[in-house]
Request: fold
Amino acid sequence: MSEDGNKGMNLILQGPHAAADDLHALAALAGAERISPLSPAALRAEGVAATPDVVAAVQAAALAAQVDATFIAPGRTLADFSLVAMDMDSTLITIECIDEIADMQGLKAQVSEITEAAMRGELDFAASLTRRVALLAGLEAAALERVYEERLRLSPGAERMLAAVQAAGLKTLLVSGGFTFFTDRLNTRLGLDYTHANVLEVEDGRLTGRVVGGIVDAEEKMRTVQRVCAELGVPTARAIVMGDGANDLKMMSVGGLSVAFRAKPVVRTQADVALNFSGLDGVLAVLAT
Reply:
């Protein structure tokens, strides 16, 4: 986009521990013409010229101040969207379920290392999942319930974000390279509209170390967002897509607004919105009227 095309942008500044002085200093750095408070820890700086130099300066200063800075065209609201599609592990929830399942086998360090490499985009996701699931062979299936009850926690702001988008009439999709054991429970707990994930094979009460059917990889995540949008009769541009790992990039690329949540660098740099410090409800400030 040309520099002229970037004039008149909005800049959303927010952070759970953001000081008002820091927010106003960042708005001034961006050359804001007007400032609209959104909450005690968030504001909208309006009339910003989002040139590359301004964006780079603001992002660097915001990172140092632990503030999330989002440049966005004015006038965008939740009404522009029909669907929120979310990754599960390390996005909607704080853990990587497979790592916690592996901990029950004493293999968390080994599995976590593979998970991290896959999320950074260094390993093929499907191949890495096959390797990790194979290490779980023989584990009692009851361990999955322990992970859900003892370790699974929603990410900060998740419930507030979901309540707001559901109240606004948006549908919700949880699409995960994780497992249906967890997405099914979250579906019931949170009143989600659609879920899609991998099925762990269980025989005689134990994990076999295999996945049933196809693996939900980056391509399948993208196809799922496309399928759900088609079912809703809307273009994928009406989807907000949230993720944290490299296997989320393809589905994020087809949405109308991509949100990187506490994400790997490769994801943050390609997303429309990067929430490094705010909760998932930070997207509500980005799209506030």
